[in-house]
Amino acid sequence: MAIRTPLLHTERLGSQTLYRVRRGPSGVWRPRPLLVGAALTVLVVAAFTAELVTGRFPVSAAEAIGALFWYGEQSTVDVVYGLRLPRALVGLLAGAAFAVSGAIFQTLARNALASPDVIGVTAGANAAAVAGLVLGAGAGLSTAVLALLGAAASAVAIYALAWKNGATGYRIILIGIGISALCTSITAYLLQRADLFQAQRAVVWLTGSINMREWTHVVPLAAAVAVLLPVAFVLGRHLAALTLGDDTARGLGVPVQRSRAVLLFTAVGLAAFATAAAGPIAFVALIAPQVALRLVGRPTPPMAASALTGAFIVLAGDMAARPFDLPVGVVTGLVGAAGLMWLLARANRTGQGA
């Protein structure tokens, strides 16, 4: 007889977190997540539309929407489809992928500072991409493919080194920090060896940008998001149980090691494909889940709200960076650095020790 997996639900009551185990829909109406989701959706649609109409070639919102259905002048259709739509889609998908990846890492590690930036996934992508630009390693492969391979290699190394009768979030974080330091050192060494032109190309890529993106960047990222995002949403119901510890989660019927492994490689895959398409856009994976968590009022980062928040941060950051001809990574870096300092100050004040 099939055994249904119990579902663990958490909610915040004042300063305390309540845990409830159930086997079916509770029927409890919670308007706040729906209202937050609706508001974030409106913001994302507005930012996406702004990406389509903003630029040197003037296009109105009605013309941009018409161009999406191949109506209007051919020049407008060419500008919207050939230049602006790929850029907007990369921003939308990369932001959502980074944010969901960060939400998974932060929940598994029970640490608000855990993200692909911290545990070495994006550092591995950076090292591989810079090696290709400076040394010509992987000749014939694009920078995006090299970044994807670097992220995958670092993720496998982290999981293998963290394995000891299973892999815990604590060991993964510690090993990941070491791998991140190693990859960062390799990247710095390669930049020192590079000539001026190679170093400039590498620095632009390391900043993170969605400028001049094409459909060749959109298609693999969209395919990865279409596969990995549903997996993250489906297995997200196990995340709250895993935060209670392996024994408790196992007692609640959660397959601990299998769920953790699938969730980790889903998070790595999302971060790797986003980095390959847009570069390592700083702090989105760190900040977006924390913003969504506070908007929804949940003790752990919610997946859907995190995805919408990440997409809005990247699209809005790109709009803010356009007048200054800056990569979006500069804007997210400035905002994210302020957010990181706030998280550290809050953790120090509450004694959580982030």
Automatic annotation (TrEMBL):
SUPFAM superfamilies: ABC transporter involved in vitamin B12 uptake, BtuC (SSF81345)
Gene3D superfamilies from the UniProt entry: ABC transporter involved in vitamin B12 uptake, BtuC
GO molecular function: transmembrane transporter activity
Domain of life per record: Bacteria
Listed transmembrane segments: 34-53, 88-106, 118-137, 144-163, 169-191, 218-241, 261-288, 326-345
Membrane topology note: Multi-pass membrane protein
Any one of the GO CC terms: plasma membrane
Location of the protein in the cell: Cell membrane
InterPro entries: ABC_BtuC-like (IPR037294), ABC_transptr_permease_BtuC (IPR000522)
Any GO BP annotation: siderophore-iron import into cell
Matching PANTHER family: FERRIC ENTEROBACTIN TRANSPORT SYSTEM PERMEASE PROTEIN, FERRIC ENTEROBACTIN TRANSPORT SYSTEM PERMEASE PROTEIN FEPG
Similarity annotation: Belongs to the binding-protein-dependent transport system permease family. FecCD subfamily.
Annotated protein name in UniProt: Iron complex transport system permease protein
Organism: Nocardiopsis aegyptia
